[in-house]
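Researcher: Last one for today. Full complex below.
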Amino acid sequence: MSEVKLMKGNEAIAEAAILAGADAYFGYPITPQSEVIEYLMVERPEDRTGMVVLQAESEIAAINMVYGAAGTGKKVMTSSSSPGVSLKQEGISYIAGSELPCVIVNVVRGGPGLGTIQPSQADYFQSTKGGGHGDYRLLVLAPASVQEMADFVDLSFELAFKYRNPVMILSDGVIGQMMEKVIMPKQKTRLTNEEIIEQYGDWATTGKPKTRERNIITSLELDPYRQEAHNHKLQAKYKKMEENEVRYEMINCNDADYVIVAYGSSARIAQKTMEMARKKGIKVGIFRLITLFPFPMKEINALADKVKGFLAVEMSAGQMIEDVRLAINGKVPAEHYGRYGGVIHSPEEVLEALEQKIIGG
Amino acid sequence: MDVKEIIKPENLVYKKTKLMTDAPLSYCPGCGHGTAHRITMEVVEEMGIWEDTIGVAPVGCSVLAYDFMNIDMTQAAHGRAPAVATGIKRVWPNKYVFTYQGDGDLAAIGGNETIHACNRGENIVIIFVNNGIYGMTGGQMAPTTLPGMKSSTSPYGRDVKTMGFPLKMTELVAQLPGTHYVTRQAVHTPNAVRKAKKAIRKAFEIQKENKGLAFVEIVSNCNSGWKMEPVDANNWMVDNMFPYFPLGDIKVDGELVK
Ligand SMILES: Cc1ncc(C[n+]2csc(CCOP(=O)(O)OP(=O)(O)O)c2C)c(N)n1
Ligand code: SF4
Ligand SMILES: [Mg+2]
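Model: Here's the assembly. Have a good evening.
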């Protein structure tokens, strides 16, 4: 039996990286996620598993260290919060373009600009629509509890290597900072250098032995037709993710007249709203997104045949709502509600919005 | 005499290193990049470390270095090669890792990555080809462009009052405790090539001994960007670049020279 621990979301992410058998973490401090690197520095994972931890000189350097190390077949992670993730975008585009696996954590805070250190979910567009330059996608997971912060690290590494694609854990300041009970996964052993060379020898730059052609990590292709062909390959991969990796949770949707679509801490808040609504006799269900990309288009579309309306709740001015509306395709009304700029909506505010914008509207 | 009679082992005076591919070099005739590539690969071959060497290519004319260097390589974003090399070296400390970068890449956009990799004393080799200009993008001003020197973005000559002074990145990183060996070389004459190759060899030997960062600047030409014939470009380099960027060792065994 694994023991139950009380941990902050950020600490859980850090510990889970060690337990997932990660080879390296490169990061740069920023509130509200500095606990990730602080925890790792205290824990000395170098002694526990041989995992490397390095404080880089900037988020730009950190993501490029990730790029370099990921290109050698190692399991690498970085974390930051919104302004820092903006700085990482160039590197993320390179990682996506050259098809490398890695895990990027964004513990979102309010923006734009330096914004606020308070929680936010306003990086949805940046995370799910590309973020950097070019046609690419990240696989994006949204944890709604400290337990999921821990569980999603290993899952993210699995998916990152399965698709050779960067995976983002899109969290927010609430989940990063709050303490909850968590059961940590078991320690996975890190792959040995020999195992890495054997498993990823067809692409990783580990030094060219006589037995194979040389490996090159690059996103450059000067011939536009070949670059287009490479893009086709990327798009086919994203399509596969859409077919196979959609993850979500439906809560009380069977008898629901109205459904709140939410992820992360907004999904937790919506839980309370749902309870309050049901006490009043309003049948509310929750569609909690776990993957933001791929987005559960089909599932929400099917749900739209059975309910009277949707409220998309997000701590933003209305980003996820665009995908919700695409999914529903005009079948029933769908509106956005959310406080933003670092303000967290209350369950009461969400209920009021549901009553005014959807039920009354 | 028939050609076949000449092609005999005893008549062999020069052989291309097997660590250079047969891909035609994309460099302008007379450009120093090709020679800098070759001597780097010769060193890797002579040390017998090619199976354990990982190179990092920059953004600049040498962005395609991985087409020419016959080893595993990673192409880094503009200026980020020292960070990329750090990532590789930290997870494969027993491999040889080097970056190959131009002056725009290393001294402008990548100034921060360069300084910090040097300051951490990463056990990597940095080969820095300084041609005083942005060759690849068509001859714009670089941080190393000389005072008064014309480029497409300093068409009346670099005015140091508004455009700043040429940056001596090599002297700068020599000040940092993390660098073990810092030198400035050239590849415009056979003698200079021999010296530069020796310096690169020394740099890789330092990496072998885990002594810290070894930094080899190669002052080079850009006849296309400078709008000169190759020979004129080399002469101009000797007359104008070398006084500002004097050749020779700047730091040896972790100690500044004199
Ligand atoms: C982020 C980014 N900014 C600008 C460029 C355009 N660019 C490509 S190469 C280059 C300058 C390269 O000059 P240098 O490093 O001196 O190399 P050289 O071509 O002279 O060898 C620039 C500005 C780019 N590719 N990426
Ligand atoms: S543009 Fe300049 S640096 Fe680039 S290949 Fe030509 S001569 Fe060399
Ligand atoms: Mg240059």
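Residues 27-256 of chain B form a domain with the Rossmann fold fold (CATH 3.40.50.970). Chain B touches chain A at residues 50-54, 56-57, 63-64, 66, 70-77, 80, 83-88, 90-92, 95, 112-113, 116 (CB under 8 Å).
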